[in-house]
Amino acid sequence: MKFVFDLDGTICFRGQPLSQVIVQALDKLTHQGHEVIFASARPIRDLLPVLPLHMHTYPMIGGNGAFVAKDKNIISTVHFEEEVKNHILSIIESHSLNYLIDSEWDYAFTGCEDHPIRRNVDPEKRARRIPLAAMNIIVKIVLLEIPDYHLIMDKLSLLPVVVHEHGNEGILDISPMGVDKWSGLMKLGLEDQTYIAFGNDANDITMFQHAHASVMIGYHQDLEHFATELIPADECLISERLLAFL
């Protein structure tokens, strides 16, 4: 069986690497012949620091489906079309919005250096922080500390993009149209109803919809309707549930 795991809030917490109890449970899955796949909102660059080294070759979906990697190589990226990119950049400029913007590997960032998002960006210095003007291809945009949240949402709703709201954090996560975790999983060759998914947020809905079974960690109102099982956000309970699949 294939197991697909979101990371933050699902099997890693507070931006920290996977705990030993989670690593041991995942290792037991793979030793029994199961395949482990990671599917995160993080770009591949920022997935790696929270995973043990021996998992860096595992299949990965990054940027909610915008990046697909296997055997340490990014095999697919989806970027914004030029016209759409320019529309979003115009919104950013006219409202003086702070952002984290990813190209295929490097990134641009404005805002507070102590923002929780910033602390998780490229901690191992694998990439370059570059000016936005130097970024030709844009794969993913995260808007931070938005002063007029609903106005920006209204403007983005007119564009062919996918927007994930993190209202409690004042964050909007923007991807090109057609990008989601299920689209990324299909690029890895996964088929409908052939895997078990673990997630905790609305950006996990598409991979839950196509899973054989889906386990929601903690609680999210939108995701609940697509989950076959709910588990509290407790690493020991999550580990016990994983081992029950053996």
UniProtKB/TrEMBL annotation:
InterPro entries: HAD-like_sf, HAD-SF_hydro_IIB, HAD_sf. Keywords: Hydrolase. SUPFAM superfamilies: HAD-like. The keyword Hydrolase applies. It holds the Pfam family Hydrolase_3. One of its GO terms (cellular component) is cytosol. GO terms for molecular function: magnesium ion binding; phosphatase activity. This is HAD-IIB family hydrolase. It comes from Paenibacillus dendrobii.
